[in-house]
Structure formats: C-alpha cells, structure tokens
Amino acid sequence: QLISELKKLRKQITEMEKTKTKLNKANIVVQEALEYAESIVETVRESLIVIDADLRVISANRSFYKTFKVTQEEIKGQLLYELSNRQWDIPKLRELLEDILPKNTMFADFEVEQDFKNIGQRTMLLNARRIYREANKKQMILLAIEDITDRKRIEEKARKIHQELVEAHENLQKAYKEEKNLRDKLIQSEKLASLGLMGAKIAHEINNPLSVISGRAQMGMDMDTSEKVKKTFNIIFKEAKRIGNISSTYRNLSRPTPPKMENVNMNEILEECVENLETTGVIKHYEVKKYLQPNLPEVTGDRERLIQVFNNLIVNASHAMIDKEVKILTLESSVSKDSKFVEVSVKDTGCGIKKEKIEKIFEIYYTTKPDGLGTGLGLVVVKDIIEKQHKGRILVESEVNKGTTFTIKLPIKRKAKSKILIVDDDAYIRELFTDYFERKGLDVFEAQNGKEALQYYESIQPDIILSDVQMPVMDGFELAEKVRAKNPEQKIFLMTGLYFEHDIMKKLEKSNIKHFTNPPDFSVVWKMISEELKR
Ligand SMILES: Nc1ncnc2c1ncn2[C@@H]1O[C@H](COP(=O)(O)OP(=O)(O)OP(=O)(O)O)[C@@H](O)[C@H]1O
Ligand SMILES: [Mg+2]
C-alpha cells in the first residue's frame, strides 16, 4: 500500500513538475512580452507618459525625457499640470483628460502650440487613451506626444511654395494672354499699315482720273441741258466725291492726318448724313425715325469724319435689313445720365449679330458680306475715328433676328469756368462778392490782402482780380503793380468805398486801372466784369 501511495505521490510530483515547467515557460513568455513592449516604448520617437486617475505621473519613456529635457526624478509622482512651469495646464486639455476615465473616451490629434520650458516654441500633437490593469484594478491614461514642429514648418513651406506656384502659373497665363493680345494688335496694325500703303498708292493712281470725272460732272451741271441730265451729272459729281473720301480713308489708316477739330452739333451731323444717303439711294423704301434732342450740347469733332462714321453705320444697318420685312432705322441723340457725353445711336431692325461675333466685327477685313458689298473696313474706320481721334466710346447691343443698336458716345465740350480772385481785408465784403460771383458761375478765390493775393497768384492764375484799394500789409495799388510786372495782360479791378477821399480817387483816375466804388451796383459791376472776361 505504501508503495502504491508512493507511486501516486511520485505521479503527483511529476505532474506538479510539469505544471511548474509550463508555468516557467509562461512566465518567460510574459517576461519576454513585457520586455518587448518596454523596448518598443523606449525606442519609439513619440514621447509617452502614463498618468494615473489623479493625473499624477507614473512613468514616461526615454523620448519624453529627451524631448522635454526633464529627468525621471523631476516628474515622477507629480501632477501633470504642475510639470515644467505648468506648461500642460491648458483648459481644453484638462477637459479632455478628465473625461477619459469616467467616460472611457479617448482623444486624438490635439494640437498644442506654445513656448515649452527648456525647448522653446514648438507644436505638439497629443493622443490619449485609457489603459486598464486587471491585476490591481487600476485605471491609467497613456498620453502620446509627437513633436510636429518641423513637419508643420515643412508643410507650411510646401503650402507657400504651392501657392507661389499657383500664382506664378496665373501670372504666366496672364502674360501669355497679354502677349497674345499684343501680337493680335500688332498684326492688326501691320495689316493697317500695309493696307494704308496700298491704299495710298491706289488713291494716288485714281486721283487724276477722279479729278477729271468730278470736273466734267460739274461742268455738265452748268450746261444748258434738261433737268434730268443735270441731275445725273449731280449724282456723278457726288459719287466721285465719295470715291475721293474712300481713298483718303485708306490713306489715313496708315498715316492719319490730324482731325480738323471744331465745335459740332451731332444733330446736324445726323441730318446731313441722312440727306446724303437719301440722295445716293442707300436709304430707300424704309422708314427713318428720328428722336433728336433739341439744344444738344456741342462736342469737339471733325465734321467730315463724324459724317463718315454715321455713313458707315447707316449703310451697315441698311444691309442688315435687306431681307427683313420690317425695316425701321431709328436715330436718336441725347445727353448721357452723367451729363458728360452726347450719345447718338443708330438702331436697325435687321438680322442682328451673334454674341460671339460682336468682338469680331471691329476687326479689319471681318465681313459677312459677299464680294463687292463689303470689305470689312467700315467699322475699323468707325472705331479709329471715335475712339482714337475723338476719345469717344462705341457700344453695341444686338439680338439675332431682332436688330442692332450702335451707340456712339462723344465727350461734351466743357467750358472752363472763369476764375476770379477777390482781395479784401473785410471778411463780409469777401463773402458778399464770393456769393455773388459763384451764382454767376465763376470759380471764386479769396485773399485778405495784396501780399496774400500775390502769394497764391501763380497757382490760381485768375482770369480777373477784384481788389480793395486800402488794405493792411499790401494795398491794391501795389498789388496791381506787382501783378502787372508778372503778367502785363492781367485783368484787374480796384474798388473802394472811400470815394470821398480826394487823394485816393485822384490816384485811381491816374492809375489807368478799371475801378468802381462800394457799395457796389451789381448790375454795373457784372457788366464790367463779364465784358472784361469776354475779351
Ligand atoms: N447693323 C448691323 N447688323 C448686323 N450686322 C452688322 C451690322 N453692322 C455690322 N455688322 C457685321 O459686321 C461686319 C463688319 O462690318 P464693317 O462695316 O466693318 O464691314 P462691312 O460692312 O462688311 O464692309 P465695309 O468695309 O464695306 O463696311 C459686317 O460684315 C456684318 O457682318
Ligand atoms: Mg460696313
């Protein structure tokens, strides 16, 4: 029995030994796993720190000590927020950390950018999660901190480079567009120049025969023949004139002669144009409506060339309406809302122009007309005359199958206001004259005495000076003398209330300067001044 007991015992021992070996093995595996984990923790570049439920530091890895330049002794058992000048005491971080254990949450990629103790301005990226140890039922937080300062810097640089690249690309595109525009313009002007050259040659060649035709036609008009024949000669004469105009247009495209500027009334230009086109038969079988604003302000322009502009526009309008049932030509003139331009529009009920072609119509040789009817030059000439020679603008509105409106805007001639300088030491008198002359539409300037008037004289360049005689510092006589020394043509009036002072009046009479006495009779004063201004 003993033996059997012994055997049993031995068996048990063997079992136990087996279990022990198994346990040992397991222990080794655990140990190894731990070491493995620890070696990972120690070698990762991220800084890791473990804190307990009270947010006190349990441990940290090598990278943490290295990155934040602290030692284990300095931080172990400390509250996280109290470390390194409370640099982790950030309200939002506190909130996040305090939520992790009770709510079993985690957070990722919380960015902290600040001046860190020992290491300076840096950007750190924080990740945190709960770790739970079954053995001692302990809850902890693992905080992983990554220094992303360099990465951010590089990212920022990359962003900037990208931005610059985008801008460079845009600039390049802009430059390309400009270059193309320039090239197009160059081609245009080359075309114009060669055209002009050719035109000049042709014009020269046809000039002599044209003179003969024109001369003979004029003689024919004076001959003793029937009215019918005379009328025919008249037509020949007018058409010859037209040819002359056309050939001079060609010449002007390359070597434009300066326009002959004069004051013109656009209503008259329109009327003349319509009359011409009616006699030459361009305007035929269709209605012309005219809405011309009476008393239209004048513009400065070259009569002949402006007539040519509307000729070209009306001829185009007539062509556009050829196949249309409704043919109405509307001519309108008005003053622009801002009162700066006279606007004249030519409106037709023709075929219209497609949107994408509107830009094209001003290009040289662009025409949709069959040979003989159009050369594609009309609007080139219009644009040149209006924009280059008259500083005006052209607007086009068009709707296919409805019609087209060309609006020409020409700057209204502004009369520069006459400038008057009032010199008087009495502020009320100055105010009185200023009010009066401003109402008369003059530009009024004031000075308190002769010296002040002289000081501003050059910059004001008054058309007329109206000065008191007796003033402190410098009186009216001295002012007149000094001003005349600068500009003998200067118009100047003296005025005085001291008509009872014999000496002054005598001096005034002798001085040969126009004068009147105060209080002023404005109707007399204005008569004198306005006459002087007209001279
Ligand atoms: N009122 C209009 N309605 C419709 N299309 C128009 C009108 N005016 C101009 N166009 C279009 O613009 C083109 C260019 O006009 P432009 O006056 O420059 O040349 P053109 O009339 O063809 O020839 P020309 O040199 O004899 O004037 C015309 O061929 C036509 O297609
Ligand atoms: Mg034309």
Broad shape: elongated
Distance between the termini: 159 Å
Helical coverage, percent range:
40-55%
Pick out the low-confidence regions: none
Based on helices, strands and strand pairing, what is the structural class?
Answer: alpha/beta
Describe, in plain words, how this protein is organized in 3D.
The chain has 535 residues and is an alpha/beta fold. The chain folds into five domains: 1-40; 44-147, 2-Layer Sandwich (Beta-Lactamase), CATH 3.30.450.20; 154-237, no CATH class; 262-411, 2-Layer Sandwich (Heat Shock Protein 90), CATH 3.30.565; 419-534, Response regulator (Rossmann fold). The protein is 51% helix and 21% strand. It has 14 helices and 17 strands. A five-stranded antiparallel sheet has the order 2-1-5-4-3, with helices on both faces. Strands 7-9-10-12-11 form a five-stranded mixed sheet, covered by helices on one side. A hairpin with a 4-residue loop joins strand 4 (120-133) and strand 5. Helix 5 runs antiparallel to helix 6, helix 7 (266-279) packs across helix 8 (303-321) and helix 8 packs antiparallel against helix 9. The longest helix is centred in the middle third of the chain and has 74 residues, at 149-222. The radius of gyration is 49 Å and the shape is elongated. 21% of the residues are buried.
Quick structural gist:
The chain has 535 residues and is an alpha/beta fold. The protein has 14 helices and 17 strands.
Topology of this structure?
Blueprint: H1 2-43, E1 47-52, E2 57-60, H2 62-68, H3 72-75, H4 91-103, E3 107-116, E4 120-133, E5 138-147, H5 149-222, H6 227-254, E6 262-264, H7 266-279, E7 287-292, E8 299-301, H8 303-321, E9 328-335, E10 341-348, H9 378-390, E11 393-399, E12 403-411, E13 419-423, H10 427-439, E14 443-447, H11 450-460, E15 464-468, H12 476-486, E16 491-496, H13 502-511, E17 514-517, H14 522-534
The chain binds adenosine-5'-triphosphate and magnesium ion.
Residues 312, 316-317, 320, 348, 350-353, 361, 366-369, 374-380, 404 line the site of adenosine-5'-triphosphate (ATP).
